[in-house]
Amino acid sequence: MIDLLTAPFVEFAFMRRALAGCVALSASAAPVGVFLTLRRMSLMSEAMSHAILPGAAVGFLVAGLSLPAMTLGGLIAGLAVALLSGFVARSTVLREDASLGAFYLLALAAGVLLISARGSSIDLLHILFGTVLALDDAALMLLGGIATVSLLGLALAYRPLVLECVDPLFLRSVSRASAPVHYAFLGLVVLNLVGGFAALGTLLAVGLMLLPAVSARFWAVDVTGLIPVSIALALASSAIGLLVSYYGDLPSGPAIVLTAGALYLASMLLGIRGGLVWRLVPARHLEA
Hints:
By secondary structure, the protein is mostly helical. It has helices spanning 2-11, 13-38, 42-51, 53-63, 67-91, 96-118, 121-129, 137-156, 158-166, 168-174, 178-200, 207-216, 223-248, 252-270, 276-280. The chain is 81% helix and 0% strand.
């Protein structure tokens, strides 16, 4: 049994690289996903993952399958969509989800149009679904740098982020940090989606960000518990998903996200904090 679990990573360097990249992404994306779920912005990450596409497409058209060019393009496009949607939401009658939906649809259509006009269906699939088993040193350094920046940023903005999740009106009344922290958090979301895009593709990058964070709600009740549980679930999803893809000869990115989905279903059923099975157990009556 131990050989079955360790042999692929011991024998093949590409499996070790894939695992290292997923570990870095899990350590940074899962905590960001926790704050997204607490702020009821879960679907925003899905929209932002598509908003990266036109920037990545421009980088692809300029330099081909170049990681620095596509990463820089995706980062610029994602930040532009995030900042524009936040500005529109704070300056007009539109709410942020509505303005983000409009901008992300425009960005997604522009990205698909650019790739379809100058590339091929293979190029589009490469950008959308990624190549986690083909991570090189540059990709690993990118993922490691993003994880470092994300964890430091969350540590610095931890208190205002938690307060904004609990009582945003109070934070605005006692501090001017609400808007800067909000935009900085959007920047971290975009940064992690760009890192996930390098490993899993734009359509699957959001999987390791949201599914472990949502699953953690069934095992912990506060932020100090949600963050480590979400990271542990993301790491387990990565390792199990890579093993399933290796032995089943399946695409690694979808296997990792489907494994995270299976852990979510298991948490929903068996989680000690509101799981369906525990809800069927009769509660003890209060005693004097």
